[in-house]
Specification:
Elements: H1 3-17, E1 19-25, E2 31-41, E3 47-52, H2 56-63, E4 66-73, E5 76-87, H3 90-96, H4 99-102, E6 114-128, H5 132-146, E7 154-159
Length: 160
């Protein structure tokens, strides 16, 4: 698969999943994950999220911008490593605002604590299992019977 196709695969998985586990590094150096809804995914894998300025993820990013965001659903998964920044540009917040975000910030885009998180994606790894659960179970049975390593799909690494 070409890099362009791999990047497209990564962005497709992200767009189909919508909610990612956003992982930061806390003050003690431990990994901390929480679900965040991706608002936009660029063709190069960069992502945008809304959050509140007083959240732990904002504090963590200000201290250490290294992040990972993972997405998955029944047969596809992706893990994206990158560098995050907190963006307070009010015009950009207005431009990216949508009805879904309003559920968390009912006072709208001018809510003082609303900020954006921009993830400058460096690399991604993805896995797919075509055929879903049934195909996975059949491959598992085949591997047990033949005493061979299970193979259920495609995987790849891409630099973004």
């Amino acid at each position: 698969m070409s890099d362009t196709e791999s990047i497209s695969k990564v962005t497709d998985i992200i767009n189909d999943s919508h909610i990612g586990m956003f992982t930061t590094i806390n003050e003690q150096g431990a990994l901390v994950s929480r679900p965040l809804a991706v608002q936009d995914v660029k063709d190069d894998g960069d992502m945008w999220f809304f959050t509140s300025a007083n959240t732990s993820q904002v504090a963590h990013i200000k201290a250490n911008p290294a992040v990972n965001v993972s997405f998955g659903q029944r047969t596809e998964w992706v893990s994206v490593a990158g560098t995050a920044e907190v963006v307070t540009d009010r015009q950009l917040i207005h431009d990216m605002w949508n009805q879904t975000v309003e559920a968390w910030f009912p006072d709208g885009p001018d809510t003082p604590e609303v900020v954006l998180l921009h993830v400058d994606s460096d690399s991604a790894e993805y896995w797919t299992s075509p055929g879903g659960t049934a195909a996975t179970v059949l491959q598992w049975i085949k591997s047990k019977v033949t005493h061979s390593r299970m193979s259920v799909g495609e995987s790849g690494t891409v630099e973004l």
